[in-house]
Every structure is written in C-alpha cells, then in structure tokens.
Amino acid sequence: MKFTWSWLKDHLATDAEMAVILDALPMLGLEVESVADRADALKPFHIARIVKAEPHPNADSLRVCQVDTGNGMVEVVCGAPNAAAGLVGVFAPVGAYVPGIDLTLTEADIRGVTSRGMMCSEREMMISDEHDGIISLPEDAPIGASFAAYAGYDDPIIEIAITPNRADCLGVRGVARDLAAAGYGELKPLSDHNIDAKGKSDISWKLDLPADQQQLCPLVTGRTFRGLTNGASPKWMQQRLSAVGQRPISALVDITNYVMLDLGRPLHAYDADRIKGDTLTIRLAKAGEEMTALNEKTYALNDTMLVIADDDGADDLAGIMGGERTGVTDTTSKMFLEIAVFDPVSVAMTGRGLNIHSDARYRFERGLDVTSPDWAMDYVSQMVLDICGGEASEIDRKGGGADWKRQISYRPDRAEELTSVVIAPDKQRHILSTLGFSISDDGDQWQVMPPPWRGDIVGSADLVEEVVRVSGYHLIPELSLPRDRVVSQPAVSDEQKRPIVLRRLMAGRGLSEAVSFTFLDAATAEKYGGGAEALRLVNPISTDLSVMRPSLIPILLNVAARNQARGEGDVGVFEIGPVFTGDAPEDQHLVLAGVRSGMLAPREWTGSARPVDWLDAKADAIAALAALGVRVDALQVRTDAPEWYHPGQSGTLNQGKVTLARFGTIHPAFLAAHDLDDHKGAVAGFEVMLDAVSMPRKKSAQRPMAQLSAFQPVGRDFAFLLDEAVTAENLIRAMKGAGKPLVTEVTVFDVYAGKGIPEGKKSVALSVTLQPTKATLTDAEIEAASAAIIAAVDKHCGGVLRS
Amino acid sequence: MAGADPQALKDTLLAAIGAASTPDALEAIRIEALGKKGELTQAMKSLGQLEGEARREMGQALNAVKDAVTHALESRRSDLAMAELNKRLEEEKVDVSLSHRPETQGVIHPLSRTLEEILAIFAEMGFVVAEGPDIESDYYNFTALNMPEDHPARQEHDTFYMTPNSEGMRKVLRTHTSPVQIRTMEKMKPPIRIIAPGRTYRSDHDATHSPMFHQCEGLVIGDGITMGHLKGCLIEFCRAFFDVDDLPVRFRPSYFPFTEPSAEVDIGCNRDGGGLTIGAGADWLEILGCGMVNPRVLEYCGIDPNAHQGFAFGMGLERLAMLKYGIPDLRPFYDSDLRWMRHYGFMPFDPPSVHLGL
To answer: What global pTM score does this model have?
Structure first.
C-alpha cells in the first residue's frame, strides 16, 4: 500500500514531522517498507526558458541555446528536436547529477562550443520513460523555481505493508485514523458534498440471487451521471496516482482508482450508453457463460461465480474486474457508477478460480466497510461532478444491507490480564472511540460495537490488541517466566536426545552433516521403494522435488555426486532426518544414514590411504547402534539388504525379526543413476532406522559392580578349515558358546582361501581370550576349553582344526 | 709370573681398553685380562709362589689393577653402547616437517548447532521439546489455527499440497511448525511449556526462499501468563542467543490468525560500513513472530479460553543461523557442499550448553 505524505495529510491534521510519523507507523502495526523522496534526486533541476536557439556551427542536429535560468543566462548545446526559443523546460547546471544518464555534468566542449549545463527529458530525470524531446512546461511555469516542487515530486512516497486483518488500512484514510487514535493528529472529516440529484437513474439494479445466497451481495448503490466530459484528470490527481504506480488514464477511470486508494473503496464505472437495456443484474454466472474483462482476457465462467450482467449477458466479475464491453472510454459522457459490497469468500474463490489478481479483489476479499455503498456515493459523486461536470441522477439502492452490528462484552481489566499493561478505562475508551468503536458502558462490563470497517474485530482479545497497540507495545513490561525449580530439567526426552548424540558421534567419526530436501524426483523415489500416490505433491516446485523421499541413500548419493563434480571425490556425509512410507504421522520415520566414497583419507606419503568399503559402513552403523544402547554383539547379521546395495557386500543388523540397520557397498547400477561410478573406489552406505531401535528400559544411574578379574587372561589362537558358506558370526557364536564363561572374546585375524586350501573351503584363524575369575588357569583347564571349542566348531560349523 | 709388574700390566690393559673400538674388541681384552687364562688371572694364581710380605703386597697391587681394569671395561662398554645408539639415532633421522597421518574430522551443520543453542536456552526457561509430522492435515495446519478455508492469510502460505486420497481429502506439507501447538494442546493439559523445531515447506524458491526450511515454535499456556512474560521470555532468548547483553529488542504489532494480540520482534543492528553487526545501532532486523494464543485456537483444542491463556512464537532457524554466524546465502544450507560445510560447520566436541557457553 503506497501513498504520499501530502495525501496522508489530506486526512490527518497534524503538526508532526514525517520522520515522527514514519517511526509511529510500524509501532501501530503498519510496517514501513520504503520511503522514496524523489525531491532529493531532483534538487539540482530548475525551471528555465530557452531564450534563443541557433543552429550549431559544426553540427546540423544540435542547437546552441541561450537559457534563462532565472539566475542568469547560460549557453547550452542541446540535441533535442523540440529545443526552440520560447520553450519552458527543465535545466540542470554544471555539477548536477543526472540520474537517467548516470553522469555528473561538467563544462563540456561539444564540437567547438562550450555547453554549461543541460535541458532535460523526463527519462533523464528518471521520472518516466519519455524521451522524445526535452520537457516542455506551460508558458507560465515560474522560471528559476524548483522543478520538483512545481511538478509535485517533492511529495515523498511511503509504502507500508498491510497485514491481512487490516482491510481498513487499504485506503489512506484508514492509516490516518490509526495515527489519529495514537495521538499524532486529528482525522479530518471527509469533504462536503452537495448533490442536486436529477431524476431517476437511467440504469437500475436488480438482485437475482438464490434465496440461500443473499449474502453474496448485501448492498449495492448506483447512479447515472449525464453530460460528462471525460478528459484528463486534474494534475494533482495524476501526480498522486503516478507516485503510487497507477498510470493516469482518464478522469473517470482515475477517480475510481483514486477513491479505491484513498478510502479503500473499490468502485466501478460503466459507460451507461454501452449497457444493453436499463437494468444491471447481480447474479450467479450461467454455466458456459463467457466475458472479456478490462485486462482484455476472456474468461469462461461457472455457476458459482458472481457477475453483473446487462441484457447481453455478464460483463463484470463482481468485486474483481469490470468488463471490456461496458467500461468507460475517453469519450464516455454518460456513466453509471457502482458501489457494492460482495461476499469476501465468493470474491476470493472466483478470483482464485480465474487466477485474476486485482486491487479490487484484494480489498473485497479482505472485507470492506459494509455501509460504504451508502456513505461513499455522494462523496464520489461530488468528485465526478467537480472534475467532469454534468449532472447526477438519484441513487438506486438494492439489498437489505449486511448485518454488521455486533456487541462484544469487554472488561477494561482484560487488557492488563492479557498483557500486563495498565491502561486507564478512560484512555481505553478514548482510543476505541477514535478508532470508531461505540461503547455502552455499564461499569466494569462494557459492550463494545466495532465500526463497520473493522470486520476483523470479533472478541475481547481483539479489543485488547487495539488499546495496547495504540498505546504502544513499548508499555508491555518484561516479565520473567515463573519457574517452579531452580535447576532446569532436560528439554528433550531420551528418545529426542538420540539424534543429537548420533550427530556428534557421526561427526566425530569423520562424517559431515548434510541437511537435504525431503523430496526428490518420482523415478528415483520408485527405485528406492517409494513413490506412492499419497506421497506425491500436487504442485511441486519442480519435478526433481515432487515426491517425499523413501530413503536417505539417494539423497546422500546426490550429495556425493555434487561434491565429486566439484573435485571433492572423497566424501563422508550423513543426515538424520525423516523418510516416508505413507502420509499418516506414523508413516514418517526418523533415519540416520551415511555415505562414504573415494578414499577414507587422502593419499599421502606414509601410504595410510585406502579406499572406503563396506566395512566402514558397517562400523558406522554398529557405532550408531552401540551409542543407542543396543547390545551390538547380540545382533544377527543377515544378507537381505535392499536392492540398492551390492548383493554380495551388504547386510542388515537385526534383533530377531526387527531390522535395525543396513549397510554395504552401494550397487554400481544405482551409482550410475546418480552420475557416480566406482572406478576410484567403492561407495558405501548405511541406514539406521531409529524408530526400530527400542528405547532401553528406564535406566538407573547406578551401574552393576565392575567385575575386574585379578587373574591373567590367556590367549589361544585357532585356525579352522571350513566350508566357504560358514559365516564368521556362526563360527564365533559356536566358539563362545562352547567356552562359556571362560571365553570373553573371539576375534577373526585371518581369512584365507586359495592355494593349499581345497576348493569350496576357507581357512579362518581366530584368537580366543580366556579370562579366569577365580584362579589362574591351569594347563589342563586351557586344554579342556580348547577341546570344547574345537568340538563345537566341528559340531556346529563342520570345521576342522588345521594343524 | 711372580715377577709380574702390576703397574706395567695395568698400563698395558688400560691402554688396550681405551683403544678398543667395538664391544667385541673390548670383550677380547676382558678375556685376555680377566678370563680363566687371562694375564691378570694368571698373575693372581701365581701369588701362591710368593711368601709373606711380598705376597701380600703383590696381592694388593694385583687387586688394585683388577679393580681398575674392571672399571675401565665397564666405562668403555657404556661409552661404546652410547656411541652405537647415537649412531642408530642419527640413521633414524626424519624430516619432521612432513605431515602426520591424515585424520578425518566431520562437522555438524550450522542448522543443528543453531537448534541445539535454542534448546539449551529454552531448557533453562523450563521448556520441553514437542514434535509433529511434516505431512499435515489441513485441519492442523490451518483450520485449528483459526485459518478456515478462504482466510486471506492462507494465500500467503504458498502451500504444497499432497495428492488427494479417494475421499478427496488433501494433506499438505506443513507450512509452519504451528500445527504442533494444536497437537500438543490436544494431548497435554495446561500448564504447557514447549518448543517444537522442525522442517517446514512453502512453494517458493529463489535467493531468499527455499521450498524446505526450518522453524522453531514455542507455546506457553499457564495461569496468569501474559504478553509481559512473552516479552521477557523472548528478550532473554535473543540476548542469550546472540550473546549481546544490551541487545535492543523491539515488539511491533502484527497479525497472525492464531494469536491475538500479535507482535513481530525486531532486534537492533548496525549496518555501518557495509557489514551487519547485531547489537545497538540505527537499524532493526525482524527475527520472529509471536503473540497471545487466540481464544479461538484454545477452543479448537478443547481448552477453555476463559480459564487459560498463554503465548506462542515462531522463528526461522536459517535466519537465526545466518545472522549469528554471518552466513550470507540461504541456498547452500541444503546443498551439502563439503567446502561450505567445513567452513560454516561445527566441531562435535564442543556442543552448546548454558554452563560452557553457547
């Protein structure tokens, strides 16, 4: 919402400086977005007259002009076609900065003649795109005077943001009313009118609405103007409209635009001679009906859309945009003026359905003063008659009016209860009255009636906001929240703490944290087991971001690919975030996933560098589970990881039937889809399904007593010949089981197949730690344990001790 | 050998020891002197041929020689060992300016850091964390927040819609974290004091808008909670978060359908010299929105607005992170450029806390 300083002062009688008002507006909730003072840039430009213009001795297209600046004569070389003796224009002296050509003027030798300044076009001063010649002002423009002041450019433009509740401030008058209530002056009364109505209106209204939808148009007024002259609107009006970005068109169009901005009251002007018949009917459109609006686009209407129609059909989208067929033109002499109230919801739905954004729609859908068709008609009529002459008919009024009067019970104490600001009841009464509220006072209990332009006020909290807002939010005291204990409690539950701990763990393991978009493209989603209909966006920002992600792996592969493309081939990243299996809250699952690619560490002189592999991913997954309190040595490894993993180098970590994590080398075919390859080493990844990891039972701070044996542990190495299919997990389980409770640790230190080992077999070497707790182990005890282990490996794994 | 000359023997042996250049040579000398058939051993054995005084004197003299030789051997052995060690150390010399074996260090995303700082501060004020889903119903995202269908504020949300189900029900990606207010109030009885961080979505993608971003919601419901508490709470937060004790904080009237009265919060800043400093200065920066919970919202949640009241606020994590850490652009937050992450990321070993500093 834009207006100028002088425009505001049309409504607000105030001695306040503009700076004071600019500070006051945001504190009333009217955020100042910009202030443009064009006078600053135009300061060096003054009105001047070309006294003499002679051809340049050395250039046919140039003239040498003697310019009366009102402050002496100056010689100027000018190339404009209209530079002629007698022209009154705008002069910029040496030293002036000319914004349109981004140049500070100096004395310039132009083909042998010294030019001491410049006669300017509008474009050179950046006040319009006009550049056909230099500005030509009326004969009587005061020579030597400031051009900005003369042309009205010394009126600063203020732009404020209006929140959706403040429809009343979509007109300058509403802004002035707020300022007046806050004590920055007085709201001036609207100018007087004195209409001598002549006869019935040539056009009359007809409301043709279904019985249950009378609210679509509660009130409309109209009147016919005859004998008008629709020329250019007055200079002051054009200047203001231009200042706020409205192109002046003709007096009648400009008046409707001006009143909309001035009072927040959209109007519509019909050329009465172009209306077919003598009736305008407000009705729902007929299915299949079409009309061409003022924006020259043709719209297909349906029977939910409110229109205004003459005998030839619809030609106005009520509250949104008028029709081309019946609109006013430069030659209109008979005009029918519409001032109506339409249902905001209907206007919003029709506007959205047809995708039309207009200043009128913006105001209608936020809610107008529902009484305005009555009070605005004569005010606007006076303006039309003053500017365009002619006469006005009587007013045609239809509709019973909106039921806007409502009483809100209010206790003045409520302001303090809600905001801790103490505002005396008299002060509150004054504020509310200045804002247009009426109050019937019954001691502590008031009945407050909001004015018809404040549809946003529905309850006592709204009234509190009004009195506190106008008094000033700076009055709200700073109170500390009461706390019932001195030492604060944890803000997160044990479950909410998990991602925080895992984040630190992963970063400590050398992975960096990514935060990625939660959506991806449909084809990728489908490849990773997602893409369900319910997870597709109807209006994605692009097809790449159109489906909620089923897995973090494709997201992190994209991260790896992007970094590889930037020359960072060695990537280690993780993310903790949601994946989706459906659109219900319980279908959103928190997952930790990571991807490593390239070398684990950069190549360097000691030769420690090595490519990442599935073991890194497994280690990451197991570290995460251990941090979550999972007994990782009791997990079962299975080889049922999903298809985006290498079928022979991947696995899942399970507690019974529940898969807690999966890990492995990423399948080369899946890498290719992300523009990744494994030429420079594998890409490995893991996923930990946090929701699947059950919370440990409520833990006590106390630990069980530490059992630290006083006796030396004994290490024994074994090597078994086994079938290739026997897994390390089964082998270790068998050995631990056999050696209970003496065996505390079993570690594989070598796996070998090949020369010397029969086909289909492998040799696995393990070291076993035997930890006595009661006495030092005897040779016999060690022998017995060894024998038990060897027997168990034979029984459960078919393994033979290698000699 | 009875005529041995102890002094001459001593001189000879000590000279030989001094001349020995390897442990082996030294050992040969030892055997030559002190071995079973060594010169000194033989001289000692031949003492029996002497009598009386002469025997005693010669014995003493030979013992003195033996002590001297033993000592000289020890000393020379130690010297030789030291020389040998020094030689080895000299051979083991390296260029210590070479780099150590590389270690990889991951970093924590600035958004996570920001969130943890927020948690630390609000934990001090007795808040607990609440959560809600990213895919939200129209009811929780809008209606229950006093934004019925056709409310003009809805249009400012640039909502992402999910594909409608067979009954035509259409879910949305939550446009703000405010639905967690509703979910919390449905579950919990007052008093309530929660913050709800999370991912939020709006259909907007340019230099200053991302289709996915993060907010943190706050909600306090309790006896006698007023806008004064809201102001105190948020001023405390802003000053602690930005670590500026005298940070100017300004409350401006604003509008949110789910709060009444509503406010926007600005913090002071200084733009002198092209940079941006948070603190006392000529300018203001808008950082969050807040207000007293609208009575209609309480009613939607089954809480009697005549018996309970409270406040709510919401802030953008990206904006807070950008302001605090001087991160100029929004888009790289989601791009995971390792160079950006290393530059703006955080070490995992210094998590924010109130007692160690934010």
So the answer is: 0.88
